[in-house]
């Protein structure tokens, strides 16, 4: 007996379908709901083809992939930006992908790799629980793994195929030309849709810098030829496979099911989702009716994010449009159709591509790229003097250029990590064993005369890891096999080296080409000076200026195009602070910084004083009317000028890294900005400085009283901070507050960084309460996001840090002036 509510109109549709000519059997699942031509959530066996029962989204399905990135390492806010790569068209090689999947190389390449609209989505999920490890043996998935669930179909290809048989309401004979033609095109669309889901997942995984493995691929809109007839599945998952995903909604758990094969009347099918409770049109008054409700459409109760610029779609696809997936699952279980082996928690749901220009503008703003640029490349060198050559490149190379991938980006400095791999140190891969699946497919070699005439393309899959390499470069299958195997080895090496490189980054030396030998302190000083100049010009009203905070991101470039010899221009670095091309816009003057390497000789030149130079750091020799004289950097008193400028910069939006970042993140940013340190050294040094300052730090007024009052009311207290644990303890001990706190966690304690939920979970575990019993008090959105991600019961923003009320109030339940006001808040 089903407990899930089924709409009467769906039952009527089911009844009508069961009475169609040639229909011998129908099965319906608890996600059943009315569709355009027939009920969604049903499987129908007939002796002829009914294209309407499938509709235009032929091959739509759910594919689940495991990422090799644990959830605890995920920065949700960063991932949310990265996954927006799916807003863009895919720039891969459709011909090679289609050919590798045995499809014609020109089969609808245009929409490949994209999700489409409706309720199609790509969702980043966390494997929340696993109920039966034995049933998952071989999948190598574990609790805490990140997964991608992709729901998409054959896009406009399916529409075109359906368009050819739109009027065939009485069914098509399988032996007729039109029937055979439709079924062949339909089968291609089903394979195309499955490939498309894989490409979408690969794009998302690549943006997140992870590899991925397919766990389950279950189409739910398709026709299959079976011995006893043509099996039509409409919104019913193909279940004659080991694992089938059951989608919930963006604000509910999804499940991974193991189908049971003992109910033949289920027609080897299963529910594929929770099914609609309300149709799209009737959602208008049911979601997004108030402002806070609308804001809530892009957040989930799991602390997840929804990325979808289409407000209408957000409402039509609101979680309350769907039935309760848990109830659907219960019905499947009690009907002995399937068993759930894993629950999947939604973290990030990406829906529907948006306006391309908007997407491009946002991508440039966030410095993102479209995913088409290679993240790594393996170059094989042969010949003499290889060590001499490689030694000049190994390290971090600064590349000064306009990026071809970020056409609108002002930045001219890009960094590439270069390391060498010794050929004699290849990973152990046994290329001769059954660990490899080698498939051939039709493909022409270069030149194209032999296009599609021989099975010359080769696809090699390394079964234990799922790594794949393809070659269609050569005309001969034999040579393509060699190339594909070489590429497979290269993929192994890259995978291994990428993870080694992460470990190595601690010791990484920074080489740059050309080298910019500015100490970190000076570089920061220049950036702070920019802010000072910007505010001075604005305050004086000298010019119409538009200050832009750009802490740590000045674009330094060589002074080129001025007729200077290369060696001179290569030892000069300039950045325009104020001017037509500056960070602060002004059309009348240019103010910039010029740094010259020690010993640079600038050729004699003279002109009227439309340019004036002041030496602000270091020492310069000038020639005035033939007589040399020295000038020190005495124009500005370094400490008096820059220390207040640093302070102001640190308090401004530009200083949010200092306020919310941990020592490692600050060190990373400074190294990227030119600090000549190893990551580990700079992090240790910053920790040392911060701890030393903490001994003398004083609590805010009223904090001691608030702490005592909260303790008296039975609260237990903890500190979760992006400082190091040692710095927090130094502060608590220095202020005699230490005995009052049951728990202390810093960025280095092992609970992960903010806004990940680990710190709140750690506190909840330490004091033995659920996270819903925890109130998080924080001074920036990272704190509040962490609280949401952990499912904390209450979030309280305070204004004593770097964030203003308008930044905190959209996220926090309450905003107080200071934590001292907690006394009044918890009377
Ligand atoms: N995990 C998510 N599941 C979702 C989301 N939106 C819808 N759904 C589920 O997917 C199926 C798809 O149904 P179909 O008939 O269009 O194939 C639906 O029944 C819902 O249960 C989401 O954002 N995340
Ligand atoms: Mn679907």
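^ structure tokens above, recovered residues below v
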């Amino acid at each position: 007996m089903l407990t899930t509510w089924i709409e009467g109109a769906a039952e009527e549709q089911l009844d009508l379908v069961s009475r169609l000519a040639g229909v011998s059997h129908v099965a319906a699942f608890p996600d059943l709901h009315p569709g355009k031509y027939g009920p969604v959530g049903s499987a129908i066996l007939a002796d002829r083809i009914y294209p309407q029962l499938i509709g235009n989204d032929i091959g739509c399905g759910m594919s689940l992939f495991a990422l090799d990135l644990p959830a605890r390492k995920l920065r949700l806010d960063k991932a949310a930006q990265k996954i927006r790569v799916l807003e863009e068209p895919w720039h891969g090689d459709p011909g090679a992908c289609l050919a590798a999947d045995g499809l014609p190389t020109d089969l609808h390449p245009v929409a490949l790799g994209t999700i489409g609209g409706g309720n199609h989505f790509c969702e980043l999920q966390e494997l929340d629980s696993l109920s039966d490890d034995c049933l998952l043996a071989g999948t190598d998935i574990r609790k805490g793994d990140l997964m991608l669930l992709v729901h998409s179909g054959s896009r406009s290809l399916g529409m075109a195929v359906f368009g050819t048989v739109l009027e065939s309401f009485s069914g098509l004979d399988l032996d007729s030309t039109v029937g055979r033609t439709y079924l062949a095109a339909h089968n291609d669309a089903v394979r195309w849709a499955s490939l498309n889901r894989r490409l979408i997942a690969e794009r998302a995984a690549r943006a997140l810098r992870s590899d991925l493995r397919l766990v389950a691929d279950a189409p739910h809109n398709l026709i299959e030829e079976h011995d006893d007839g043509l099996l039509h599945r409409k919104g019913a998952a193909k279940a004659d496979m080991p694992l089938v995903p059951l989608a919930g909604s963006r604000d509910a758990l999804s499940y991974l099911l193991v189908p049971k094969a003992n109910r033949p009347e289920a027609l080897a099918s299963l529910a594929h989702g929770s099914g609609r409770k309300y149709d799209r049109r009737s959602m208008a008054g049911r979601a997004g009716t108030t402002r806070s409700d609308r804001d809530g459409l892009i957040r989930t109760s799991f602390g997840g994010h929804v990325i979808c610029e289409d407000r209408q779609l957000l409402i039509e696809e609101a979680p309350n449009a769907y039935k309760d997936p848990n109830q659907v699952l219960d019905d499947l279980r009690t009907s002995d159709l399937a068993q759930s082996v894993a629950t999947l928690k939604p973290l990030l749901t990406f829906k529907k591509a948006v306006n391309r220009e908007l997407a491009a503008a946002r991508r440039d703003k966030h410095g993102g790229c479209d995913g088409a640029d290679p993240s790594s490349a393996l170059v094989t060198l042969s010949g003499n003097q290889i060590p001499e050559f490689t030694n000049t490149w190994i390290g971090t190379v600064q590349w000064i250029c306009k990026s071809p991938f970020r056409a609108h980006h002002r930045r001219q400095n890009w960094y590439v990590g270069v390391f060498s791999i010794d050929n004699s140190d290849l990973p152990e891969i046994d290329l001769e064993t059954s660990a490899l699946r080698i498939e051939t497919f039709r493909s022409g070699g270069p030149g194209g005369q032999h296009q599609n005439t021989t099975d010359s393309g080769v696809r090699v899959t390394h079964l234990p890891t799922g790594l794949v390499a393809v070659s269609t470069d050569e005309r001969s299958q034999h040579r393509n096999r060699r190339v594909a195997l070489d590429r497979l080895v290269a993929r192994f090496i890259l995978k291994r080296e990428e993870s080694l490189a992460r470990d190595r980054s601690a010791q990484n030396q920074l080489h740059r080409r050309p080298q910019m030998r500015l100490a970190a302190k000076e570089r920061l000083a220049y950036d702070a000076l920019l802010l000072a100049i910007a505010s001075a010009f604005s305050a004086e009203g000298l010019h119409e200026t538009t200050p832009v905070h750009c802490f740590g991101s000045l674009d330094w470039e060589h002074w080129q195009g001025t007729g200077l010899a290369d060696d001179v221009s290569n030892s000069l670095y300039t950045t325009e602070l104020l001017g037509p091309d500056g960070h602060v816009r002004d059309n009348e003057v240019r103010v910039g910084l010029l740094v010259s390497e020690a010993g640079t000789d600038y050729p004699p030149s003279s002109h009227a004083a439309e340019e004036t130079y002041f030496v602000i750091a270091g020492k310069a020799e000038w020639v005035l009317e033939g007589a040399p004289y020295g000038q020190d950097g005495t124009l500005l008193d370094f400490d008096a000028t820059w220390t207040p400028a640093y302070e102001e910069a640190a308090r401004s939006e530009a200083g949010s890294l200092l306020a919310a970042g941990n020592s490692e993140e600050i060190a990373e940013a400074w190294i990227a900005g030119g600090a000549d340190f190893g990551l580990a050294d700079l992090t240790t040094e910053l920790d040392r400085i911060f701890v030393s300052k903490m001994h003398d730090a004083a609590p805010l007024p009223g904090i001691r009283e608030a702490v005592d009052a909260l303790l008296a009311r039975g609260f237990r207290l903890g500190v979760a901070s992006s400082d190091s644990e040692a710095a927090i303890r130094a502060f608590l001990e220095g202020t005699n507050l230490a005995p009052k706190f049951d728990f202390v966690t810093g960025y280095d304690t092992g609970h992960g960084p903010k806004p990940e939920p680990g710190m709140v979970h750690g506190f909840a575990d330490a004091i033995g309460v659920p996270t819903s019993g925890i109130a998080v008090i924080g001074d920036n959105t990272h704190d509040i996001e962490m609280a949401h991600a952990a499912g904390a019961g209450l979030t309280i923003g305070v204004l004593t840090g770097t964030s203003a009320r308008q930044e905190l109030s959209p996220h926090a339940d309450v905003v107080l002036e200071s934590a001292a006001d907690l006394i009044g808040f918890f009377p």
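The longest helix spans residues 177-207.
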